[in-house]
Amino acid sequence: MNDELKAAETSMSPPLRKHPHIAKFVGLLLTGLAAVIPTVGTVWLLVVIYKILMRVGDELLQLGLEAINLMRSGPDLVSEDFAFYGSDFLRFLIPVFLLLVVGFGVANRPGRKILYWLNEGMQRVPYLGAVYSALKQFVDAVKNLGGERKFKSVAYVEYPSPGCRLLGFVTGNYHDGQTGEDVTTVFIPTSPNPMTGFTIIVEDDKVEDSSMSLEEASKMILSAGLVAPESFRDRK
Q: Would you say residue 158 has pLDDT above 60?
């Protein structure tokens, strides 16, 4: 009896509907957020980097002043609150200069070896190695977004079934002397981490060219398909 009463009350109660004005308000709010977040996020990231560089520069400058005081006898030459015209710029310039020195060192063979040993050592540390590897892969992915010269074009490869296509980057065209066929090498990146993937060798007639640019394809892979090129239209 109770079940019948509950069913009757449920059938008599009107269905809940979303208020059109509230839905419109939420839609405009999300649209505004989507327009503002990229700019605000970029500015916020630049401010954070600037503050970090200023902090590092301040600590290095203080160490330098303390070293000067230790090398001379008598009262301290400078105090901890030592400042002069342009000292803030100097605090910012010191870590930038050190980063340039590190970049110059890593660009050469001895520096690359040291960086390789550092990477190997950090990745072997339990738990911390996983965090280090994830951050390194993210930085490498962002750093290589503009590396269009490494790939020739964007292409599709039909896999794993008819009608399904994998998005990949063409890396070379060759002639296979063993089969006598012209083949294309395609790098198939994984999403959302394009730094990992696999390379396949496909016959030329089984590779379908894509109209997407390298930048559009990279954005689509990084976003797991959420950011599609302008030539793609959303279905409504």
A: yes
Beta bridge partners of 169: 154, 187
Is residue 111 in some structural domain?
Answer: no
Domain of residue 155, residue span: 149-222
Q: Which of 171, 222, 220 is nearest to 195 (CA)?
A: 222
- Strand order across the beta sheet in which 197-203 lies: 197-203, 181-189, 165-176, 153-158, 207-209
Burial class (CB in 10 A: 0-12, 13-18, 19+), 6: exposed
Question: 106: which residues sit within 8 A by CB, 6+ positions away?
Answer: 112, 115
Is 191 domain-assigned?
A: yes
Reported as a pLDDT band with limits 50, 70 and 90, residue 217 is: confident
Judge whether 192 and 164 are in contact, CB under 8 Å: no
Q: For tokens 């039909």, what's the residue?
A: 158
d(CA 67, CA 59) in angstroms, rounded, equals 12
> pLDDT band at residue 83, thresholds of 50, 70 and 90?
low
Pick the closest to residue 142 from 105, 78, 194 (CA basis).
194
- Residue 125 placed within a domain: no
Average pLDDT, the chain: 76
Over range 5-25, report the average pLDDT: 59
CATH classification at residue 195: 2.30.30
- pTM equals 0.46
Q: What percent of the chain has pLDDT over 90?
A: 0
Q: Is residue 54 one of the residues assigned to a domain?
A: no
Structural domains in the chain (count): 1
- Sequence-ordered list of residues with C-beta below 8 angstroms from that of 115, at least 6 positions apart, any chain: 106
